[in-house]
Amino acid sequence: MCAAGLATCVLSTLVATGCSSFRETAADSPRPSADVFTPAHETFGQSVNEFLWVKSTPHQPIEFPHKTHVAQGVKCTEYCHEAVTKGPRAGLPSLSTCMACHTQFATDRPLIKQITAIADKGEDLQWQRVYGYSPQSHVRFNHAPHIRANVECSTCHGDVAGETVATRNVDLNMGFCVSCHRQKNAPNECITCHF
Amino acid sequence: MDRRSFIKLTAITGTSATLASCGNPEHQFIRFLPEDEMVPGVAVWKPSVCPACGAGCGVLARVMDADADVIRKGQAGVIRMGVVKKLEGNPDHPVSLGGLCSRGQAAIQITYHPDRLRHPLKRSGARGSGQFQEVTWDAAIAELVSHLDALEGAGNQKALAYLTRRRTGQRAALVGQFLAKFGAPAPITYELFGDDVLRRANGLSFGREQLPTFDLARARHVLSFGADFLGTWNSPVAQAAAYGTMRQGRPGIRGSFVQVESRMTQTGANADEWVPATPGTEGALALGLAHVILNEKLRPADAGRAGSLILGWSEGLPDFAPDRVEKITGVSARRIERLARDFAARRPAVAIVAGPPLAHTNGLFTAVAVNALNALVGSIGAEGGLLFTPQRSAGGGLAAPSPQRFASGAEGRTIAQELAARIPRSLESMAADLASASMPPLQVLLLDGANPVFTAPRAWKVREALDKVSFIASFGSFLDDSTILSDLILPDHSFLESWVDATPESGPLVAVASVAAPAMKPLHETRSTPDVLLEVGRRLRKPLGLTAQTYDETIKASFASLPAGEGGADAWTIAQKQGGWWGELPRGAAAPPDDRKPARSFTFVDPQFDGDANQYPYHFLPYPSTQFLDGSLAHLPWLQEQPDPLTSAMWSSWVEINPTTAEKLGIAAGDVVEVASTHGSVKAGAVLSPGLAPDIVAMPVGQGHGSFTRFASGRGDNPVSILAPMAEPESGTLAWAATRVKITRAGGPDGKLILFAGSLREEGDLGR
After folding, report:
1. CATH number of domain containing B49
2. Peptide bond into B120 cis (omega under 30)
């Protein structure tokens, strides 16, 4: 009897997650809808997804080919995500970072023409985060100490160098973090990440 | 639950989840290219100056990258930029010493306030209707310029007035220069809880028309007459830090502290002994103590100039024997003797006076009497006593206006007198005014940080006066009660977005000139008011020829004469790095005291009150609220939700009544009471408080705004509105504690009074 109800529930959730223009749940979602901070999720849908560990698929403004850039010798943490060694966030490059090279290189390609036009208008690209935690989970991740401990980017982000647009290859749940911390004898107190 | 309803429920939940998770609002926003390079996730601390009160505390602003809603070239969008996320006290700054009060902490909300004005606005509806349309900066400045040009063309420059709150530093100097070069009168300064009476008294007693600084950290005994120096008065952060040292910072020494007042303040609640005195008689009590000290020869009788101002000082104050003072003040003669002996014996001792005692018609006498008491125990200029923060003199290339010139309205008049003198009250009187008055009627009014419609008693008729001014321009960042009446609004940057400077008048023991560059780029299409004034000065038909092109040049020039620091760095470089310059002023740069001894003498006269004592049996005490001071911070939601430290009330107005009085009148805690004076009435919920004399009714100032953003508009009631136009006669300042009222129960609790704690005592039995 309950199976029918459960099925409806699951079905509804699938419909919800399948909704193409799904709201990104990354830690720095571009715009908080409420003026006041609250630990509650913004929508019921978000809390359901959070509970079921369902993540949205980010939609990037352009199909950024990571593979091509890495093949050309562009270093991930030297040019585009250069804040990774300095602080908590790796940083998503602004269009001015792209234009530092692309006023010279590959200017005839259609995508480059497209971004040049956007830059000329004084506007930026609305990159969406692929990884991240919802503010409600109270996780504070800091990239810099991991880089200092020589953790490879690919440990947590998979083989981005072989991809075009980055996808979520690794499921960054608490078990993933804790097991790695155990292996490497890194601190495992709650306060290490939740503060 | 049956199977059918379970399925229905899950279907509803599922559908709502589907609907709720759709939509992608971030795609509706334009994302601009960042203007500066930020390292994501890494904070930078930049100095700034707190704008919440006149103390001028140095703060540090934590700047980090974030997505901010901005307006660029008239287009709303999102930009990744360095924004201020938190304010803390600047540990190196001599005023704040690393501390920051809750008002300062909340000041960050000024910048991000959802109701902040984002563009220049021009009135489109009737005056006061709140209808405005957006205009460009070019058009807005052109409009102001055309009105000023018209005045200049008619040779009527004196018809321009500039109404501001008290400011120090180069901003005040620039405004003064602008008006002087245009030919208009000096700015009218108005603050409800301004300390002009105390400044005047210090000018008489010590030759310095300036607020005093108390070396509490090294004092052994403090006697305060009504001064809420730990909560709202003067420089609370500096005073609280020094007080902490006095009480607990010296091993083996704990300073003692006595507070004299008729309503217990946050400061009074900290005292070792709390002495209630009849309102308006605190000066007599001070002389009663002086009488005992003189009579018992506890100290040498000489109190110099401060003592000579008091009638009968050289004869040992025969009129102020303790038994007589007991009759005046209601403090027992034995207690007076003990307080006097303690004050003389514990050295160094210092007396402080401020707040309600000076807000009576005899306020100047009270201040002069306490000054004499301080002089008698030798605390003037002494370690652990009363000092004056060194001020830079007006000469030496520093064009800061002297405090005297800026103390109150032009020629020491209040805003009410000023406006009354210059605005025709009616058509009948206009002819007479034009024929006789030295001032032509006011035609253009510039509002800068003052909100007189809210902070002046209704009996002054400020609102009516403003209605008669033909053109009002405001530099306000919010549509407050006065700015909403303006014809043109030229919104200022927030303090975090502009150059700020302040010259604290009191608080630190060394000279301080605070300055800070913008901590972040402006979010909206606002402009720094000093820069707008400079541009107006350039665009007038007859340019004013102000020397500087930008405000920061003006500030920089004022630092030129200050001495260089270690390693040869000049004062300007040091100041920008650490948030200000502080230290010993070079010889000749410090303003000397005025040595001319005033030929005056003061003695106690009974305070005058408005309202017949039989019909209006209670003294009304409006007091600066811990959260909002005079109401200028009521738009900040963090402060609205901060419980009052004594009553725990938040988001509301309340009336404090002694439980005995309440019982007599049949008022229970939370009941709505009506407080009526001869000039009107206000209503609010009753808070029964034992820290209040039975014949006093107190009410915090700050709520009751007609218009002041979504958080403060229409919330609570404004006690200032029912004040009688009583004034301290010499300085002309409002005697805000000189109104009598009657109270009646207007009904049961209306749910508007919100208390964080259930009642003042755990058992909640005060209403019985």
Report:
1. 2.20.25.90
2. no
Of B125 and B158, the one with more pLDDT: B125
Instruction: State how far residue B39 is from chain A, nearest Cα, in angstroms.
Output: 6
Average pLDDT over residues A99-123: 92
Interstrand relation of B471-474 and B488-489 (parallel, antiparallel or unpaired)? parallel
Distance in angstroms (rounded) separating the CA atoms of residues A152 and A71? 18
Would you call B39 and A91 a contact, using CB atoms and an 8 Å cutoff?
A: yes
ipTM of the complex: 0.73
Q: Residue B21 is nearest to which of A23, A29, A142, comparing CB atoms?
A: A23
Contacts of B80 in chain A (CB under 8 A): 94, 124
| CA-based nearest distance B249→chain A, Å | 32
Q: Distance from B638 to chain A by nearest Cα, in Å?
A: 10
Q: What letter represents residue B245's amino acid?
A: T
In this structure, the answer to whether residues B327 and B473 fall within a common structural domain is no
B154 and B286, same domain (yes or no): no
Nearest CA in chain A to B22: A22
On whether the CB atoms of residues B601 and B732 are closer than 8 A, the answer is no
Query: Which of A121-125, B115-119, B171-175, B430-434 is predicted with the least confidence, judged by mean pLDDT?
Result: B430-434
Same domain, B627 and B656: yes
Rounded Cα gap, residues B734 and B273, in angstroms = 30
Give the torsion sign (CA, B259, B723, B460, B469): positive
The two tokens of residue B52 are 């919440």
Q: What's the pTM? A: 0.85
Nearest residue to B375 via CA among B442, B320, B294, B295:
B294
Same-domain status, B159 and B226: no
Whether residue B41 is found in the same domain as residue B145 = no
pLDDT tens, position by position, B277-305: 999 999 999 999 999 999 999 988 788 89
Q: Which two tokens stand for residue B663?
A: 């019982």
